[in-house]
Amino acid sequence: MTYLDRDDGARINYQTFGPANGGKGSTPLLLTHGFSASSAMWEPNVKALSAARPLITWDIRGHGQSDAGDDQARYSADASVADMAALLDASGIDRAVIGGQSLGGFLSLQFWLEHPDRVAGLVLCDTGPGYRRDEARQQWNNQAIAWADRLERDSNPGMARAARGILTQRDARVIDALPTITIPALVLVGAQDKDYLGAGEYMATKLPRAVHAVIPDAGHASNVDQPDLFNQQVLAFLDQPDLR
């Protein structure tokens, strides 16, 4: 395991993969897992996706082997985006394809908002762009807080803090920004992921350079349910001239 010690006391677990020559000429890929998962969710994809390029996977604060202690203030989307930038810095990477599943996909969009010059492309898997209406966002946040309360009762305080501080959403900046994201974007969703089929279609219509693919016989973790089909879609996307 490799750890990155952050200035606020958090310790971030991450893994790097890639060809022996460092994948010269190939744009690196950073992948972020979904809520309640860990970087281990990418195991079915690592070999294929890192064959020709550097690949970084990591654990969000409160997940897997990453730890940010007991201070709720350390668990936020802003801190997670800063962690992503710090991982690129630690790996000597200026610009990468940024991708993720569910919460990881939303954080990838937030990363573009903060660091557009560092994003060559986006891979958005079984995720959504957040909410424009305050009422819908509050319903989502209420659900996240309910999950946090349950996780705390189940003796998982780190993930409970992540639910309260990272999973909850504050505004409509991400969904409003979609038409301005002019880099290549791949929107993937499992055909059985009913909660996110509409969100995927919406993002594909709003992102100017989006490729949209629905993966058959797959649910919310399409990369796990159908790893070969998922890998094929991602590799075809990464093979375009802008991302090689």
Topology:
Layout: E1 2-5, E2 11-17, E3 29-32, H1 43-49, E4 55-58, H2 77-90, E5 96-101, H3 103-114, E6 119-125, H4 134-153, H5 157-167, H6 173-177, E7 185-190, H7 194-206, E8 210-215, H8 222-225, H9 227-238
Parallel strand pairs: 3-4, 3-5, 5-6, 6-7, 7-8
Antiparallel strand pairs: 1-2, 2-4
Helix pairs in contact: 1-9, 2-3, 4-5
Features:
alpha/beta, 244 residues, 8 strands, eight-stranded mixed sheet
Order of helices and strands: EEEHEHEHEHHHEHEHH
CATH topology call? Rossmann fold
Helix content: 40-55%
Structural class: alpha/beta
User: In angstroms, what separates the terminal alpha carbons?
Assistant: 28 Å
Number of domains: 1
By DSSP (H or I, 4+ residues per run), the number of helices equals 9
Shape summary: globular
Uncertain residue ranges: none
**Percentage of residues in DSSP E strands:** 15-25%
Biggest sheet layout: 8 strands, mixed
CATH class: Alpha Beta
Outline the structure in words:
- The protein is an alpha/beta fold and 244 residues long.
- The chain has one domain (2-131, 171-238): Rossmann fold (3-Layer(aba) Sandwich).
- It is built from nine helices and eight strands.
- It has helices at 43-49, 77-90, 103-114, 134-153, 157-167, 173-177, 194-206, 222-225, 227-238; strands at 2-5, 11-17, 29-32, 55-58, 96-101, 119-125, 185-190, 210-215.
- Helix 3 links the parallel strand 5 (96-101) and strand 6.
- Helix 1 (43-49) packs parallel to helix 9 (227-238) and helix 4 runs antiparallel to helix 5 (157-167).
